[in-house]
Structure formats: C-alpha cells, structure tokens
Amino acid sequence: MSAGALATAFGYELERARSAEHLAAITNVKVRAAEKGLVPYHSARESYARVRELLDGSIELRHLDFSANRIEDAKSATPWTLTHNTPALDAKLVAAAIEVRRTGYAIVDGLVGEPMASAIRHALANFVDEDEDARTFSKGELDQSERRILGDATVDKIRDDTIAWLKGDERDMVGAFAQFLRVTVLRPLFSAFATTSHGLSSAPPLAPVDSYVSNAMLSVYAPGARGFVSHVDNCGPDIDPRALSVVYYPISSTPEEGGAMVLFPGHETKEVRLTPTRDRLVLFASARVPHAVEPRARDASRRIAASFWFVGQPLAVMAAAET
Predict the structure, then answer these.
(1) 148-205, pLDDT tens digit by residue?
(2) Keyword set for this entry (predicted)?
(3) Is residue 176 in some structural domain?
(4) Is residue 77 a part of any domain in this protein?
C-alpha cells in the first residue's frame, strides 16, 4: 500500500471513530506509522491537530495515552520538530522568496538553528557512511534536457559527484529531512510567491504541497572531485516544470577545500561564490541562474549537499526575478 493510500485509510478510520479513546488510538497508530516512514509527517501532524481540538476539554482526554504530544516538544531535535513550520523559519523563507524575485537567488544562513542543524548533519553523514556496498548512491548524471544538449559522452567531464534520492520514507531523521525540504520549506515559499506574483501568471509560480511526488537529492563530492561545470537546472522551461531550486548544506567547508557553488545571476560575468556553510539554504530560479560547483581539493573532506526542485511556472519566477 502506498503512503497516500495508507494516509487515506487513516483518515477514513478517524472519520468513523466512535469515542475519544478510539480517536486517540487511531492517531497514535498514525504517529507510529509516520515514524516508520509509512505516511508523511505533515499528514500525521494534521490529524493530531484535528483530534486534539476535538478532545480539548474532554474528561476522557485525562485518561488517554496520547503519544503524539511529542509533536509539541520544540526543545528537542526530532523528526516531529524538524517537519514543523515555526514563525521564525517561515519568516526566513518569506524573505528569501522576496529576494529571489528581486535578484534571482537568495541565501538563508542558520535555517533551522541548533540543535536541529547538528541532528541533520549527523543523520546525513551517517547515511553516507552506511552506504558501504554503494547500492544507494550512484554516479550523478545529466537530466534529459542537459543530455540532449551536451551528449552522454561528456558527462564525466562535466559532473563528478555521487547521488542518492531520498523519498522521505528513510528511517528517522533522514526521511524527515526529505519531507522537510518537500513540504515544510515549501509552505511559506508557496504563499510568498503566490502573494507577490502581481498577476504575472494565471497560476501560482509554485505548485502547492499536495502536487509533489518528487524526491530530494543527496549529493556527495569526494576529495579530488572535479566539480560540476556551469549549467542551468531547467534547460527547457516550456516542457520542464522545475521553477525553484534549493540546496541545503549540512556541513561546512573552508575555502581552501574547494567545492564552492558559484552562481551567475543575470549575467555570466557576475559571480556569487558560496563556500559550503553548515545550516545554509541557497535558493535560485531554476531556469534563470547558471551555477557551477568548483573542484574539491584532494586533501579536503567530502562535500555533502541536499537539493530539491519546486515545480510550477518557471517563467513566472523568471519574470518576477527580472523586475
């Protein structure tokens, strides 16, 4: 059964619950299913919020073992707190959306803060370490539009990383982090782009949360990797729906280690060089901003980054960014 079908099944059961005890029991099972990667965290959270509202003030509530209260614990770095939208996080992302419209790109430092940034770094680093048989990671490839333009034979000269696709059902913090990029980050961005589009498009620049079945990409550049030459994520905005690219860095590097991402917003002669910095999110218009990854020094540590692409109206993002 798919995650969507299972979430629907939980919704069906919640609608037919006959008592506070049944409501709490079903919600607790859904919480545990989310923790196992079987349903999205945001779906379990929404169910919990509705059930809590229904049970508020109920005498029966005093006798319930309502395990979902972990959702409200903002002091600990857990999958529940990572996937929760907070006013501070949303404000940073709304400001970033405004900056993307103005310049084509934005940088958010201290995206989630401590201790969450440490938890993400630890989870992703362990995920890479545990891939000893290389079944999860594979060599990075060009997408279809890039292959059509450049040809498969040039891939090795252009891109030198290994990648893994994160679906959101990976265990513990890794799966939650993929859901964080797909859902938690998108929510304020969707609203911000929609409210500042000024009629540039009949549809919102970004598709809403429920439109996404895509995965996050975890990329690793080993010591001595040749990087990734300048390219545009969306080479065909008429057929490719990718509108906004985001890249998150869980681990910092020094300038001497190499591996900086270089953005060329608006014109190839303008460069914005970004050394990987822990807990930094970089956002840019997928069809407008060429970018590259510089070679990694041979004595450097590995470089880890996570990317996600929000789909929608690429030309609307471009038009807004150029004003």
Answers:
(1) 445 555 545 577 889 999 988 888 899 999 999 999 999 999 999 988 765 555 678 9
(2) Dioxygenase, Iron, Metal-binding, Oxidoreductase, Vitamin C
(3) yes
(4) no
Domain edge (last residue) among 42, 72, 102: 72
Do 123 and 171 reside in the same domain of the chain?
Answer: yes
- Asked if 151 and 251 sit in the same domain, the reply is yes
Report DSSP letters for 171-199, one per residue.
SHHHHHHHHIIIIITHHHHHHHHHHT-TT
Residue 113 lies in domain: 82-322
- Between vectors from CA 308 to CA 302 and to CA 309, what angle results, nearest 5°? 140
Lowest mean pLDDT among 7-11, 82-86, 163-167: 7-11
Report the length, in residues, of the chain.
323
Strand partners for 256: none
pLDDT tens for 202-236 read: 678 999 887 777 899 999 999 999 999 888 888 87
Question: What does the block give as tokens for 154?
Answer: 């040039």
Which regions of the chain does DSSP assign to beta strands (E)?
A: 105-109, 138-139, 162-166, 216-221, 228-231, 242-249, 261-263, 272-274, 280-285, 291-293, 303-311
Residues 232 and 127 in one domain: yes
